[in-house]
Design brief:
The chain has 173 residues and is mainly alpha-helical. It has one domain. Helices cover 62% and strands 0% of the residues. Helix 3 crosses helix 6 and helix 5 crosses helix 6. The protein starts with 5 loop residues before the first helix and ends with a helix. The relative contact order is 0.16.
Length: 173
């Protein structure tokens, strides 16, 4: 393995670990997982979903957040929506700044390869927002967030079942 391929190897290994950690957790439905509590994702998002979080809400109500965090939210929306739906990070189980920093480092490497601008200020503001929002919504209202995650996991299992059924119906070459 060459020195140039080592960062890519490390990133792939870490992405696998993150995916594994992301998929862990309870799938028991809670009170907020009743039908209709979480709007259904649009059909195109269901079709493209890679993680259960892709099926959830793709915005955050920041009206009660401090002014600085509302400004950071606009940076987050601009930066993160270049490559994926915001639902992925809005509904992700990450809550610590360390995990968000790791995740954004991976995204920054991808953005650099695609010539998408992401300044140090963008990264800082995005990290500040994700840390604040995680503490407010995911830690501060953990029961609601856990119920939402459980419902999204249930829905994602249905999406995966639909995909498998569609593959089974295809004629063999």
């Amino acid at each position: 393995m060459t020195r140039r391929s080592l960062p890519l190897f490390f990133a792939l290994c870490m992405a696998g670990c993150v995916g594994w950690l992301w998929s862990r957790g309870s799938t028991a439905a809670g009170p907020a997982s009743s039908p209709g509590a979480i709007p259904e994702a649009p059909a195109e998002r269901r079709k493209a979903a890679l993680f259960y979080s892709d099926l959830g809400p793709d915005t955050v109500d920041v009206s009660a957040y401090p002014q600085a965090q509302r400004r950071n939210y606009t940076v987050y929306v601009r930066v993160c929506s270049f490559c994926h739906t915001l639902a992925r990070s809005v509904n992700a189980p990450f809550v610590s700044r360390g995990w968000w920093d790791f995740y954004i480092t991976n995204m920054r490497m991808r953005a650099r390869r695609l010539d998408i601008p992401m300044t140090d200020h963008d990264v800082r503001d995005t990290l500040d927002f994700l840390e604040y929002d995680s503490n407010e919504r995911k830690v501060g209202r953990a029961k609601d967030f856990d119920a939402t995650r459980a419902e999204l996991k249930r829905r994602f299992e249905l999406v995966l079942d639909e995909r498998v059924d569609a593959l089974r119906r295809q004629p063999l070459p």
